[in-house]
Amino acid sequence: MISTEDILAIQKRSEVTHSQILEAALNCFSKYGYDASGVAEICEASRVSKGGFYHHFPSKQAVFLCLMHDWLDGLETTLSVIAKESGTVPEAFTKMVEMTQEIFTSASGKIPMFLEFWIQARRDPIVWEATVEPYKHYQSIFANLINRGIQEGTLQTVDPENGARIIVAFAVGLLLQGALEPDATNWTGVAGEGIQMLVKGMKK
Amino acid sequence: MISTEDILAIQKRSEVTHSQILEAALNCFSKYGYDASGVAEICEASRVSKGGFYHHFPSKQAVFLCLMHDWLDGLETTLSVIAKESGTVPEAFTKMVEMTQEIFTSASGKIPMFLEFWIQARRDPIVWEATVEPYKHYQSIFANLINRGIQEGTLQTVDPENGARIIVAFAVGLLLQGALEPDATNWTGVAGEGIQMLVKGMKK
Question: Chain B residues with CB inside 8 Å of A131's CB?
Fold first, then answer.
């Protein structure tokens, strides 16, 4: 009979393997690109057998989607919490600015993979769907926030959807620039100035 | 003896070949990616012989750099002219907004290649240099413009370098979003609103 301890040990090992695959895949995609990184390379880098890999993921694409999802999901949760817990909308944006350091740090290694994702999204409808979906979540968080700002009277009447697209565009563009020239400037500071500028631009 | 007419005809044919290679390379890079597009594919797509190709370009990378340079150069010239010919700085930005339609149209087919470029830039120091260089030009155009705005008293005291990075980030992010969801909204309209928002954020 298998003991509870055994089951827990098996579960634990399975989780470790899952993380190993994700970590190795992230490295491979970032270094060699999505197309050049096969399941074989990911298995070698993670020291997991092909059987082990396919036990956890049906395909390379599934690993890719999982990586993207994990990152975007964590960010979304943080933003949602800030949006809900802040007093006025300008205050919520100020809190988000304070968070940019964290976002930059967590994003810095993932940008090349993020770019690969974008490229694949234009070629593969499944990846496209998976890329556009989280985007829409982000946009709706910001659109709701802007809407609330208009309601509470702190923001002028801007189109909330467009305002949200503008904020997301700024964030994406800044992450890309930061990836290209990480040491060129204090990117967190630039992020803060930019958001303040945009908020001032939306204020009454 | 070769007549002037003959020389002109040869020059003309050479220019046509040059353009054919560039056009075919743009298609290949956009469709299959930089890594998957070899000189052989570009030659086939452009109906130019390998000898013809190497007469015009020393390498695939050279074609890539030429494409990027041509596009960024055209844009830079337009922006510089606007910057110089406008009255106040907020007026210059308004004129740039009117130009966004043109920028979006000229950029739309090039975004996938642009992303490839970015990815290659992280792997190849020559591409990196060629990517960062035009960036610095754009940044200096905007930094000068912001500086002028501060001097003439229309803009508040923001750090011109950071302000420029913010504007460039916004533009890049918007182009990327537009590439992902071209029909999601009127991107030219969003670009206009965003620039107005940023200018208002910088105004005194």
Answer: 180
Kindly report the nearest CA distance between residue B47 and chain A, in angstroms.
Answer: 25
**Complex ipTM, two decimals?**
0.79
Indicate the range of A25-39, A67-81, B118-132 predicted with least confidence. B118-132
CA distance B159 to A184: 15
Distance of CA B121 to the CA centre of its chain: 15
Q: Which CATH number fits domain A65-202: 1.10.1740.10, 2.40.50.100, 3.20.20.140, 1.10.357.10?
A: 1.10.357.10
Contact B180 A122 (CB under 8 A): yes
Q: What is the mean pLDDT of chain A?
A: 85
Q: Would the pTM count as exceeding 0.90?
A: no
Question: Highest mean pLDDT: which of A79-83, B9-13, B89-93?
Answer: B89-93
DSSP B132: H
Q: Which of A166, A172, A175 is nearest to A202 (CA)?
A: A166
pLDDT at A31 over 90: no
Give residue A52's pLDDT band: very low, low, confident or very high (50, 70, 90). very high
Q: Where in chain A is the domain with CATH 1.10.10.60?
A: 1-57
B65, B61, B60: which is closest to B43 by C-alpha? B60
Query: How many beta-carbon contacts under 8 Å exist across A and B?
Result: 142
Instruction: Give the pLDDT score at A20.
Output: 95
Q: Kindly report the CATH class assigned to B1-57.
A: mainly alpha
For residues A199 and A90, the answer to whether their CB atoms sit within 8 Å is yes
Of the candidates A159, A194, A202, the beta carbon closest to that of B169 is on A194
**Which of A114-123, B32-41, B92-101, B120-129 holds the top average pLDDT?**
B32-41
Chain B residues whose beta carbon lies within 8 Å of the beta carbon of residue A199: 201
Question: Topology of domain B61-202, per CATH?
Answer: Tetracycline Repressor; domain 2 (1.10.357)
Q: From CA B147, how far away is CA B159, in angstroms rounded?
A: 8
Name B109's Cβ contacts closer than 8 Å, sequence gap at least 6: B26, B30
Taking the alpha carbons at both ends of chain B, their separation in whole angstroms is: 70
